Amino acid sequence: MRPEITDVEHEVKSVDLIVSKSDAEGNIMYVNPIFIKISGYSQASLLEKPHAILRHPDMPKAIFRYLWENIKEGNDVVAFVKNLCADGGYYWVLATVKMAKNPDGSFRNYVSTRRSITNVAKNQISALYKSLLEIEKSEGEEASWEAFNNFLSSNNIHDSETFNTFMKNLNK
Length: 172
Ligand SMILES: Cc1cc2nc3c(=O)[nH]c(=O)nc-3n(C[C@H](O)[C@H](O)[C@H](O)COP(=O)(O)O)c2cc1C
What we know:
Layout: E1 18-22, E2 28-31, H1 33-39, H2 43-46, H3 61-71, E3 77-84, E4 90-101, E5 107-115, H4 119-139, H5 141-154, H6 160-170
Antiparallel strand pairs: 1-2, 1-5, 3-4, 4-5
Helix pairs in contact: 3-5, 4-5
Bound molecules: flavin mononucleotide.
C-alpha cells in the first residue's frame, strides 16, 4: 500500500548516514538503524523489497535511468533523491550509490550511503526535477531524458566523474 502523500518533511541531520545495500535488481538486503528511523518502515517491511518502495512521485524517471545505466557499468553515482516515508512524508538526501565486488571480482551488491542536503541544493534540484517531471508527463519519458541530458551538457557534465563532482559541489 502506497501512503497518501503529504508535504511533511522529515529532517535528515548532518551527522546522519543512511545506508542500504541491494542485490543486482535493487531489492533491499540491508538497512541501517537510521534508515529505518527516518523512513518509518519496519526492517521486516523493507528487507527483500525493491528500493522503489521509497520512490517519491516527485522524482523524475530520468534520474533513476541515469542511476541504473551507470551503476550497472560499475560507475559510482552521486545524486539527489527525494524519498517517500511510510507516513507519506518525505526526506531529501544526496545519495552515493556504488557497486561492491567480491574478492574474485564478481558482483557482491550495490551500496547506497545517503547524507543530508543544503537548502540551496534542495531549491535548485527541486526546480530541475519539477521541470523534468513536467516534461515526462506532458511529452513522455524520452523527452524528459533528453531535457536531463541537455541540462548535463549545458553544465559541462560529460561523464560520471564530472556528474558526481557537480552534485557534490551543489551540496557545499
Ligand atoms: C543501492 C540502491 C539504492 C537505491 N536507493 C533508492 C532510494 O533511496 N530511493 C529511490 O526512490 N530509489 C532508490 N533506488 C532506485 C530504485 O531501484 C528504483 O530504480 C527507483 O526507485 C525507481 O523505481 P522504478 O524503477 O520502479 O520506477 C536505489 C537503487 C539501488 C541499487
